[in-house]
Amino acid sequence: MSKREDGRLDDELRPVVITRGFTSHPAGSVLIEFGHTKVMCTASVTEGVPRWRKGSGLGWVTA
Fold first, then answer.
1. Residue 29 is part of which domain span?
2. What phi and psi values does residue 51 have, to the nearest 5 degrees?
3. Is position 3 within any domain?
4. Whole-angstrom Cα distance, residue 49 to residue 58?
């Protein structure tokens, strides 16, 4: 099997680094790194639901 320029085998993934609590203000955050690719995810929590959802007994999630 051949190697790539960075020394990885053809079927080898780049190292993955996951850093929890990357930012201090949201309820949750994580930084995921795959080589030079970085993805930052954050989550926040707000009490209640939209007006049209009140009294339905259902929750609400948005992205």
1. 16-45
2. -55, -40
3. no
4. 9
Q: Which residues contact 23 (CB under 8 A, 6 or more apart)?
A: 29, 40, 42
Whether 63 has a pLDDT exceeding 80, the answer reads no
Cα–Cα distance, 50 to 60 (Å, whole number): 8
pLDDT tens-digit map of 19-62: 999 998 888 999 999 989 999 999 988 888 889 999 999 988 88
- Round to whole Å and give the CA distance between 48 and 58: 11
Q: Is residue 2 part of a domain?
A: no
Residue type, 36: H
- pLDDT value at position 46? 84
Q: Examine residue 8 and state whether it is found in any structural domain, yes or no.
A: no
* Residue that wins the pLDDT comparison between 19 and 6: 19
